[in-house]
Predict the 3D structure of the following.
Amino acid sequence: MLLTSKLRGVTTRRDARRPPRHRLAYAATRERILDVAADVFQHGYHVTSLDEVARRLGVTKPAIYHYFPSKEHLLSALYDRLVGLSVTRLEAIARTATAPAEKLEAMLRAHIGLVVEHLPLFTVFFREEMHLPEAYRRQVLPKQRVYSRMMVDVYREGVRAGVLRDVDPVIATSALLAMGNWLYHWYRPDGRLSASEIADIMIELALSGCLQPERGATSARRRPVPRR
C-alpha cells in the first residue's frame, strides 16, 4: 500500500539509496510518523495500536511498515530520536569555553527546554521503557549515560574551580536532571506561567543549592517571575 499525499514521502526502503531529494523526503515522512506516534503513545503504548497512528496520519497501517517494520521498531526509534536530540543539545554547550557554573546553568536550561519542546516524546520515554525490546534497551542505556556524564563532567569542573559545592557530582546532577524530567508529568503549555518563567524558577532553586555560598548571593540575577 502506497502512502497517500497527506504524507508525501517515498514509498520503499530502496529510496534511502536514491538521490538526496528522495532521501530528504523519506526522512521528512519518517519524522512525521514519529511525531504522531509520540503524540499517540503518550496516552499508553500498550493500549494503542498502529491502526491509531495510521488513522491520525490519514494512511493505512501497511503504509507505516515501509518506514518501521513493527510497533516495537517505532517505539525504539522514538527513544533514539530523544536521546539523539538531547546529546546533540548538551554537546554544543559542553564544547563552549563558558565558566562551569554558567555552563551548568545552560545545560539545565537546555534540558528543561527539551522536555517542554518535546513533551509527548518525553512522556513516552519515561513511561514506556518496559516495552522496549531487551536488545534495544542494552543499546540505549549507554547513550543515556553519555548525556548525564556530560553534566557530571561540568559539575566536577565547577568543584575543581571552587564555584560548586563539593558533593557527589552524580547525585547532584541526577537531582538537577530529575527536576527537569518531572515536567512531563505536570507541565501544561496553557498553564499560568510560561515555560521560560518556570525554567527561571527551577534553575534559581537548583543552582542556589549547588553554588558555593559566596556565589549563591550573586546568583539571584535572573528575572523575577511575575505573580498572576
About this structure: Residues 1-16, 216-228 have pLDDT under 50 and may be disordered.
